[in-house]
Amino acid sequence: MKVLYVIIAIIIFGILIAVHEFGHFASAKSLGVRVNEFSIGMGPAIFKRSRGETLYSLRAFPIGGFCAMEGEDDRSDDPRAFTNKRAWRRLIILIAGSFMNFLLGFIIVLIIYANAGGFRTAEITAVDPALPAVTRQSVMAGDVVREIDGHRIHLYSDIPLFLNRGDGDGYDITVIRGDEKLTFENLPLTFEYETEDGQRAMQSGLSFDGVIKGTVGVKLKVSFWQCIDFVRMIIMSFRDLFSGAAGFKDLSGPVGIVGMIADVGQGSANIKAAFGNIAYIAAFIAVNLAVVNMLPLPALDGGRVFILVVTTVIEKIRRRRIDPKYEGYIHTAGLVFFFGLMIVVAFQDVFKLIVK
Hints:
By secondary structure, this protein is an alpha+beta fold. The chain is built from 9 helices and 12 strands. It has 2 domains: 2-112 and 284-355, no CATH class; 119-213, PDZ domain (Pdz3 Domain, Roll). A hairpin with a 2-residue loop joins strand 7 (171-177) and strand 8 (180-187).
């Protein structure tokens, strides 16, 4: 059964890559840019077919893909070359891949929530007597939590997320009470208790039992905010990485993610639950790809956007075009770096699977 989930994980990667590159492809075609090749995967081609001016290919390794546009990294006299188009057209083409990944993540979440009858809200329904008096005198049943420690609360699931990230001693919380917006600082919102096996643990002192009916509008709204929460989780992961709270050993590449998806599928209660859990991970990965690809780093779409903005400003000042080959050198160096990083992370993932 695990082999089946591994195959599903690989297919998911292929779909995510195809959707991303299709975003570049479709926007390039619609904006009059010549596309020389549209490829899914990297490495040697196992399938190729030309249709019109474009070569379509499927390559051996499902770890990437590309939409090769005329004049993308070099000078071209073709009026339909990427670099000969107006800056706003190039900008749309560059962000289209990440947009499609985000849209796919949103659609997957919407499908997951399609049969949901209702959703828990951020309205407090009870305050535990175990909390200190200062908390019980401040927040009360009926309050709708708006912020915790400066983080906007969009969904109920945001609340345990940010309570768990706090130090447990005190939280700044903003609530909506009727027409008022009230902020309380350094309130204890959790309390310590003893588990059945004698261990000490922390528990939230606020109850959220309210449910809003799952209408089409609510499902669309909840699905969108869930994707925004994915973005926030990714940003927090980067912060943890740069602050030292997480290390290089915590990074995972395609090998590790495939293994995780297989473990999640195999560990689910039944097939339906397995596909639901895998779909949730797929949505998170789709949004992850959208965010990571827009980082202002060489070889990534965000790096190309950054250089596009910089070169456009310089060209306006100098009134002379910059040879695109220099940008090509930068992105080639970035591509070599990322391939090296992927290889190191892949070895690390394989080692984790061996010693697990």
